[in-house]
Amino acid sequence: MGIQSILVIVIIGAIAGWLAGQIVKGFGFGLLGNIVVGILGAFVAGLIFPVIGLGFGGGIVGAIIHATLGAVILLFLIKLVKRA
Q1: What is the DSSP code (8-state) at residue 25?
Q2: How many domains, the chain?
Q3: 20 domain-assigned
Q4: Environment class of residue 11 by beta-carbon count within 10 Å: exposed (0-12), middle (13-18) or buried (19+)?
Q5: In whole angstroms, what is the distance from residue 70 CA to residue 53 CA?
Q6: What span, in angstroms and rounded, lies between the C-alpha atoms of 1 and 22?
Q7: Closest by alpha carbon to 29, among 40, 56, 45?
Q8: What percentage of the chain has pLDDT greater than the value 90?
Q9: Rounded CA gap, 60 and 4, in Å?
């Protein structure tokens, strides 16, 4: 994996984490935390969405939507765990 690939992953993770923080109001981890949540969210979505047959196509926009939905799911689960 080259430096360009890592940079793209970080940028998509940052955008997805920020969007997920906006969607799940009042819950965020700051810039670095949102990047991590976005990247982990993309991983979670990569595991869940193919199983249920959900796809968003290719490209940067599809990757951002994919990662954002995964990050929203991840933030929602973290929020549930913190309340318990």
Answers
A1: T
A2: 1
A3: no
A4: middle
A5: 15
A6: 30
A7: 40
A8: 0
A9: 14
Show Cβ contacts of residue 62 under 8 Å, excluding neighbours closer than 6 positions: 56
Phi-psi group of 83: left, alpha or beta (phi > 0 → left; psi -120 to 50 → alpha; rest → beta):
alpha
DSSP state letter for 24:
S
Nearest to 59 by CA among 67, 69, 51, 48: 67
| pLDDT (mean) for 28-37 | 76
Residue 18 forms part of a structural domain: no
Domain range for 37: 26-83
Give me the amino acid identity at 30: G
Domain for residue 58, yes or no? yes
Q: How far is residue 53's CA from residue 56's CA, in Å, rounded to a whole number?
A: 10
Q: Are 39 and 13 in contact (CB under 8 A)?
A: yes
pLDDT of residue 58: 77
- Give the distance from CA 48 to its chain's centroid: 13
Q: What average pLDDT score do residues 55-72 get?
A: 84
Tell me whether residue 17 is in a domain. Answer: no
